[in-house]
Amino acid sequence: RKSVLKVKNFLNNYNKDIQLIVLDETARTAIDAANSLNTKVGSIVKSLLFKDSEKNFHLCLVSGDKYASIKKISDLIKSPITKANADECKEFTGFSIGGVSPIAHDNMPSSILIDTNLSKYETVFAAAGHPYVVFGVSYLTLCNLTKGTESKITE
Asked: Which residues contact 99 (CB under 8 A, 6 or more apart)?
């Protein structure tokens, strides 16, 4: 699929050793992904897209066992936010919900905020453009890949 190839090419340009993992079962939700990978739900990266009052988009990478805090994110970007809908997400990132990757978007988000809770895990797993495809990297690599800002963005 085109969306998976986009992620694969992005990863190859960063480090050819990062492999895509094709799952037998869906990783559409963090719980599904954790079950498929036999890992803790918290090690799953949820890539959530929000938009502010100026229609700028912000990507939040949240630990699978946490909930994004609208208030904390709004305070950090100094603008009220709402969650982007499925059509906005697909149009802006190029990925459908359930397979949104933290990297290789069609458009660059105004900001990328990374949940510091993810730092507790040796390896974190993120979607690679499809609900059955993920990749695993260290928290530090995730920060470097996305050039995101480490933040306290959960409730």
From this structure: 3, 28, 127, 128, 129, 130, 131, 133
